[in-house]
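Quick one - first record:
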Amino acid sequence: MTNSRILILNEKSVNFTLFCVKWVPCSARVVVLGSHPKGTGVWQIYSLSKGELELITEVEKPLAIKCGTFAASSFENRHLATGDFSGNLNLWDLEKPNSAVYSAIAHTSIINDIDGVGGINVGKGAAELATCSRDGCVKIWDARQKDRPVAILEPEEGQTRHDCWTVAFGGAYSSSERLLAAGFDNGDLKIFDLKTMKVQWETNVGNGICSIEFDRKDIEQNKLTVCTLDSRIFVFDLTTKHPTKGYAFVRQKAHKSTVWSGNHLPQNRDVLMTTGGNGSLCLWQYEYPAKRSAKATDGTLEGVAGNLKMIHEIGVAEQPITSFNWNADKLGLAASTSFDQTLRILAVTKLNCL
């Protein structure tokens, strides 16, 4: 048995609502994004030194900021891509924060989530961003192409538009292969093959999808974690698809509330952290079955799901944990934000024993 534990190293209270936290790549800095009570946006950069957090940059923006990512940026630039409450996509140079290096009116409503690929050790191929919105659209962006998206994934005319809450890139193991998963408020899960621009697979998990993430972006599709409103976590094994049953999955209940996000450990794709609406963190390990596929009754192969084992659970906040981000360079170092207006620096011990 492992003795992995989640420890709080530092806490920093702020005077605005926190929606997102990201480690600045290859640094000991974190950037937090959010909204002032008057509706303006804000981002702050903190430096972590000897366990203490020092505020080094604070910038106010006209519109509340919901989400951000560095995943489409190069190491030289480390540009932060953000989505705001009015549907704007912006790309920022952290050293020159007053004006965006790239801007687009991406959606007609709030950008709920953003993800990137092709950036710092994040998959092969061109650097691209994906945004999703309350308007029901998922859009792909290349900052080299101004004002218009590379692709738009949306319902056909006459179909119901559901609020898209989350997007995630995966399967970017070559310059021509790329997948994008999207989760919707009605429980719809769709995986798009961006090479063929077709839906590779879709299903419904029964309740709103708050977060999705491939276990790694730069490998052939392996696992996809889905977190939902009704305390459930799904891990889909994407290696074998049955013609009618689809992909095998394991399902767990946790947090006794909404599962806001699921985040795989960069150094070990079979370890993940989930965040709860009750202010708790849960550390999990995925255990593979002896065989990942078996012959079904109709003679075709079907996937065999593994097991999701909880390693540790801890309550760290009185309100929902809105965001969690592992540090890609330091094993076990992480940051989280919550609706109690607190940034937390965390350490998870003995992960090398899992």
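second record:
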Amino acid sequence: MIQVQLSMRTLQKGVKRLHINMKPKRIMRPDDANIAGNVHGGTILKMIEEAGAIISTRHCNSQSGEHCVAALARVERTDFLSPMCIGEVAHVSAEITYTSKHSVEVQVNVLSENILTGAKRVTNRATLWYVPLSLKNVDKVLEVPPIQYAWKELEEDGKKRYEEQKLERLVTKQRNGDIIFPVFNPEPYTVGYSQSSLIHLVGPSDCTLHGFVHGGVTMKLMDEVAGIVAARHCKTNIVTASVDAINFHEKIKKGCVITISGRMTFTSNKSMEIEVFVDADPFVDEPKERYRAVSAFFTYVSLSKEGKPVPVPQLVIETEDEKRRFEDGKGRYLQTKAKRQVQMQPLTQQ
């Protein structure tokens, strides 16, 4: 059980923010990890979302008014900087960094502690966006109490991030018409050979008290499917390296049947990009048709038995659509690589 402590503080960065500390009570167990002992990326994503949901819900209810619950709308690109292993302790901290009229930006850090030596290392940093939904009507979005900034630049930077993610969510939703169809007798290393789907009936344990699915539950299922696709493709131990922005387009209510589908889109020498999306079928007393609820791209790396990166079999392209998705994936890969090189330049110049 993860215990949570909440307090107010003024950070040195000059903006008053809510801060949340999750006490080191979450030891990674065998059921959190794969057969090689590496903790599933989905388990970590679920912990990150829990911290974000608590702090944003607390903040949105910090002023008198209509009570609400914070729902996850988007997770920015998340890099898994270091694998977490069975027996290590996860430390999760979160802080609110920006508020718009109807949304909250939360930044989350994850540390892993070796309880035998006391050594700690950063494993994840993530930025999440939440919107407050009324408890009386979960389709109603409420206003967010503002936070105070010591410098105008901090608010302006936050507003810029808000506008960028808002535009990206719109663009992503517009291209979300793809469906994955079964392929019979596929050849090895093709898209059809490794593509996978998981069907899940959303029950009470998957949901908030207000009847819609926890974002962390959805992300964990998405990581599970992406991991199956990656393992089928290379047949080695695999770990999550990063997750491109996860966009939550519509809520998933209790009683829905969700289909989580994944397919390989791009391979470099040492990494694989997998597109994952979640479709929801209202199952109980709902006239609504099937709809796309969530979408994202996961990146995995292949590891040897010693835990070292090994080359990835190259994806075999068979159709024009697969070629287009491959080129799009290559563009994302090169863009990320260029950003990392820019970030490393100040370090090499010291």
